[in-house]
């Protein structure tokens, strides 16, 4: 019975790691489509989201089964609960990647009209950092690296700061510019703001994954933030 329990636990862990790789690919594709105006890559991200959703449901079902069948406790219980919640965070990141991919199409015309090289470079840097914090979160999960998991928030703060800089520069570019098409610029501003918001949320959800890694490794619930259940 103990052997079957550990086999099932290994299967859950394997599927969470697979889900992590698929989500990383989705985020990579979405950020590339956004910065390089590649609608073909954007569509691949959108089409691939069903596989991520299917994995999340399978992991949830397996976690419920192992709870009912084996009634785990202590560290095993923390690990199973954390895997279930990490899968939820990964599914959310997958959805954010889809949202980014969809924005690629909406921004196509407006980027040519309004996007400056400075703003594009900032978006690229923000995307790079968001991908870094996600990669580190998944590395901490796979390697059970508490030290790395504890450092994720430092990178996420850089993501937040770039988002603030982008907002300031976007709004400043419209002030006193009477020649700008205000209706078209408003659409551009809305979409680029959403894009940076999605990148910021990818960073936040990645930090949440790191917190769950810390929880199942240490058993210390103080590592969880008050906003752990935010979407």
Please provide a written account of the structure.
It is elongated, with a radius of gyration of 20 Å. The protein contains 8 helices and no strands. The chain is an all-alpha fold. The longest helix has 41 residues, at 74-114. It has helices at 2-36, 39-47, 49-70, 74-114, 117-143, 146-150, 152-174, 182-218.
SSE layout:
Elements: H1 2-36, H2 39-47, H3 49-70, H4 74-114, H5 117-143, H6 146-150, H7 152-174, H8 182-218
Order of helices and strands: HHHHHHHH
Distance between the termini: 37 Å
Q: Nearest-angstrom radius of gyration?
A: 20 Å
Dominant shape: elongated
Portion of residues within helices: over 70%
Structural class: mainly alpha
Spans with pLDDT under 50 lasting ≥5 residues?
226-231
Number of strands: 0
Total count of helical runs of at least 4 residues: 8
Biggest sheet record: none
Mean residue pLDDT: 91
Keywords:
disordered C terminus, mainly alpha, 8 helices, 231 residues
Concise structural overview:
By secondary structure, the protein is an all-alpha fold. It has 8 helices and no strands. It is 86% helix and 0% strand.
């Amino acid at each position: 019975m103990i052997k079957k329990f550990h086999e099932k636990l290994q299967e859950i862990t394997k599927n969470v790691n697979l889900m992590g790789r698929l989500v990383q690919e989705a985020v990579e594709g979405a950020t590339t489509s956004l910065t390089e105006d590649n609608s073909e890559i954007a569509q691949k991200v959108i089409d691939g989201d069903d596989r991520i959703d299917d994995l999340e449901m399978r992991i949830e079902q397996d976690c419920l089964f192992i709870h009912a069948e084996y009634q785990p406790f202590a560290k095993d219980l923390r690990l199973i609960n954390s895997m279930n919640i990490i899968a939820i965070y990964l599914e959310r990141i997958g959805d954010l990647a889809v949202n980014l991919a969809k924005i690629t199409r909406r921004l196509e015309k407006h980027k040519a009209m309004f996007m400056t090289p400075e703003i594009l470079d900032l978006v690229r840097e923000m995307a790079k950092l968001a991908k870094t914090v996600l990669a580190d979160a998944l590395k901490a999960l796979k390697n059970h690296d508490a030290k790395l998991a504890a450092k994720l928030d430092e990178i996420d703060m850089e993501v937040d700061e770039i988002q603030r800089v982008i907002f300031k520069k976007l709004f400043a570019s419209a002030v006193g510019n009477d020649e700008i098409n205000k209706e078209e610029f408003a659409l551009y501003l809305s979409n680029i703001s959403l894009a940076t918001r999605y990148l910021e949320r990818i960073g936040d959800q990645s930090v949440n994954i790191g917190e769950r890694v810390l929880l199942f490794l240490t058993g210390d619930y103080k590592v969880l933030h008050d906003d752990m259940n935010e979407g």
